Amino acid sequence: MAMSSVVRARPQKLSWILSALIVGGVAGGDQATKALVERRIPEHVVIPVVPGFFNLIHTTNVGAAFGVFSESPAPWKTMLLIVVSAGLLVAVVAMLWRARSVRWLTSVGLALILGGALSNLFDRIRFGQVVDFLDFYYRSYHWAAFNVADSAIVIGAGFLIVQVIFCD
Hints:
The protein has about 170 residues and is an alpha+beta fold. It has four helices and four strands. The chain has one domain. About 60% of the residues lie in helices and about 15% in strands.
């Protein structure tokens, strides 16, 4: 084995390890925070953290991220969300597996997305819903409650957007 192939293999292996750690950290952190909220905050109770801006709450979401489709009465909604989420996870992992090299921003972005999607998928399979607890608002403007997994997905998507706009 030539020295140049050893040198190239090491960063790629390190990138896979770091990506796996990010995926595990996001999924584990999301599961831990949701469990903590379920144990410590009764459902629909609001705990002001920064009055006029941020609350902790305990609510559940049977829809997609940020409450999208949560009001839909369709009986197949949860199964559709599970199938679509699983399919997208498989597609992203397959793309990463086949890629010869991945830039740092792309790797971190995809790892954040995978960790968040995996954790929310796990909840949907087990419970048919996810726990949301981060509640941001300003006056009459109120963002839908979300969780650590949703945050990781949005941040990861932001990394990918930055990669496409500024680094290619």
